[in-house]
Batch of 3 targets.
Target 1
Amino acid sequence: MHYRHQLASGIDAPLQAGKIVCVGRNYAEHARELNNPIPGQPLLFIKPATAAVAMAARINLPVGGGECHHELEMALLIGNRLSIGAADTEIAAAVVGVGLALDLTLRDLQDSLKAQGQPWERAKSFDGACPLSNFVAVNDIDLQAMDLSLHRNGQLQQSGNSGDMLFPIKHLLREISAVFTLLPGDVVLTGTPAGVGPLHSGDRLSAKLGQILSINTEVN
């Protein structure tokens, strides 16, 4: 089934799904757990629109790709065009929804590609690599003070707060839009806290964003 952005009310958002801009190593503890250096500027990569699937549907893991890790992230839905030189007011107005995403990562493959100095797309941007929740309107929500958590089979796997980001949201959107023009329907993933790990067939997942959003799903 073709993916469409949905609002928390369950209705389709009037925005066509676009590119997904991701921020790597935006939580210091996650960088440390993978023995990666803490970046001096946002580490950016892109998933295509074809990576997006509904998180509420069962998650399909790629066959023969090695370990597929969960990386829970706060996701921002872009509603207005944003490009280089945007004013603070334009940056603030560009985000029209907030939700959760799983940045699915074929970790064995990513490690192999990194060791060879090659890009990560095969490990990060495959079809279905970005399960997305419904989006909640950002009215009166402090996006820089949001708890996010992921339980797998009843056990807490990931927990963090958006206040712990190395690069806060306004900074991220300014940096991103200076390189990639953001268009209505694009999504920005803001980084994952520590606790990433492999998914297995039959896993039950429960993700939560503050008091505004919770979602349950399963792995095929």
Target 2
Amino acid sequence: MKWIVYILTFFISLKSYSQSPLCASRPTSFCCEYVSSVTINGRTFAGSKGFSNTSGGSPAGYYDYAYTKDTVPRIKAGQSITISYTAVTNGNYMEYFKLWIDFNGNGVLTDAGELVHSSNYQWNGTKTVSATFTVPTSVYNGEVYMRFVMQYSGSPVICGTYSYGNTFDFKTRIVGATDPFSYSGYIYNSESVGIQNIPIELYSKLKTSSTYTSLSTTTTDANGKYSISSTRDATLYDFELRINTLTILSPIVSDAKSFNQKVLLQSFNSRDYYRMDVNDDNNLSISDVYSIYMKIIGRSWKSGMVDYRIFTSSEWSTINTSTSNLKSTYLGVQTITLSGLSNKGNSNYYLVRTGYRN
């Protein structure tokens, strides 16, 4: 009996939104103040053009720059980032300003450290304010959302409506911070049907170490999808995925359809046939498995010996020349280990089984 594991393909799934995923925020009253522009990390974004509710924004007074070409240039953690903004009043009013960054990507701006700028001023006319902030290196790299609010007469609220002011939403990318690891994909049978409850375990080690330790486990869902992640910095750690012992309870005839393939260009002393439950215990387990192979797409099988094998040459020779019950010759392999994973990678695997007559 043989399992063959194929690396099928790599793909990246991109999310898309029609508007900022942050909570709704907007002014409801207009007459006396507005923000005409905001500049963050060297890029300027236009605001209102006057005091009335017809002076800009959708809805009035709200500006969503999170999904435009002109996003905030990427921010490098640990460096000083400049923000400046120009606001206009038609009286001597106290105005409050705040800027938040959703560092952990949870759509909530109240988490510790996410308020990066806060100020308030009282003036009449036009005023431009410049300030700096620094993104800590302890946050995660990647895409983040930002919100800037000016509010009259009180500290700006993150969500909801308020009287007089403006809200701006932006998006940027943080680099030079922590790079958390994630990996996902699907496990299929040979008929491209996802296999559920395949156990997946994530291991890691410091790049300076030689020993991997277990971090977390998961199983494939009803569609064969797996997704596993770690908060450990991928720039400091190496990661492995291990596909652990597969058990299918009460296999039926339709399950065996995916195993009706012969993929090895070799001659065998035993007559090959296709059957799932070799030892007739009504359970497909590791005791049924004799060999596990991995083939990378685009690479052909060698004649007489496969390109990628988990068995050694001597072990393969023993199995290949056996004419008896192979369970007593070699028990098989407990896990498949996938090394050299790229962070945020996405790959699919096919589990295909062929068999020998016992």
Target 3
Amino acid sequence: MEKAKGVLYVVGVPIGNLEDITLRALEVLKNVKIIASEDTRSVKKLLNHYRCGSKKLISLYKDVEIERSHKVLKFLEEGKDVVLTSEAGCPLISDPGAYLVREAHKRGIKVVPVPGVSALTCALSASGVNLSSGFIFLGFLASKKNRTEKGVRKSAQKSTYCYF
């Protein structure tokens, strides 16, 4: 009989105020023993604040994302549940983790999103901008005007679009 695979929980974490966390996110953080995070220092601060107990922390920042993702995938294949967080906000939104999530799907590992804080939606909801026609998010663009324009054109050609 094949051993059951673990679950990869993609958990949104507070952007600045540690109290901006959902009860569900806290429950998952308390119960899972392995956490992969863009910045282990920020997640450690959060875990200590809420007394979540000792965890195995795996740093998953951009420069080591692919290499460390394979380590995380091994834990998942062994039946261990893992949390993926970003430094702040929602993982994969201009943060590393896409490779890990994509590979988990390819391997038949269940990926469960745990909604939490998103800087983008928080900023939009407080902006007063009329969003009835939707919005487009392109992430971090280059600071020079000509590179920004090229980036927008390139993104328009290969971006993911969501609408209802």
